[in-house]
Structure formats: structure tokens, C-alpha cells
Amino acid sequence: MKNHAWYVTFELPWRGTASRSRRSRSTQTFETEIEAKSFARAKFEEGLVVTAGTIIPHLPKRAIPSGNIPSWLEEGHEQDSGDAPENTDPQSGKSE
Q1: pTM for this prediction
Q2: Any idea what the Cα angle at residue 33 is, between residues 84 and 66, rounded to 5°?
Q3: Which pick of 9, 10, 35, 76 has the fewest CB atoms within 10 Å?
Q4: How many Cα atoms sit within 13 Å of 2 on the Cβ side?
């Protein structure tokens, strides 16, 4: 059995014309945060409401509400893009 540490929950799109006050959700689990982010990014780009977090007893506990999903998806993304930070002089703070 795989040790899943992350979950991503997303609201399912409405189907049919029934007016219900309750929204349906679906949840997927993942072994790593990278896998969870990849899946969450795809659902977020589809325009779905997404939340994510760690599964108990995984520590440290993280819960990412839908409003924080964009910033969570960007965490570490700058490093992955290969953009090297500018060299700056630590004393003056100016770029070399």
C-alpha cells in the first residue's frame, strides 16, 4: 500500500439543470507534494475550486484553502524555472 501524504479536493462542475444548494466534491491523494501540486494546477487551470493539504499523521500539517492555492502553486516554481537570482553585493545591495 502506498503512503499518501497529500490530498487535493476540487469541486465538480454542475451537471444537469437541478438547482441544489450543495456542491459535489472529489478528492485525490498523492505520495508527494510535487504530485499534488501538479494535479491541483491542472484542476485550478480548468477553473475549479481547489483546496489541498497533508493527510494526518503527516507532519508538518498543512492546509491550503482555495484562496491560497495560487501562491502554493508558485512556491518553488521560481527555482524550477531555471531563473538564477541576480548577483548582488551584500554590502551595497546593488546588482553586479
Answers
A1: 0.69
A2: 95
A3: 76
A4: 8
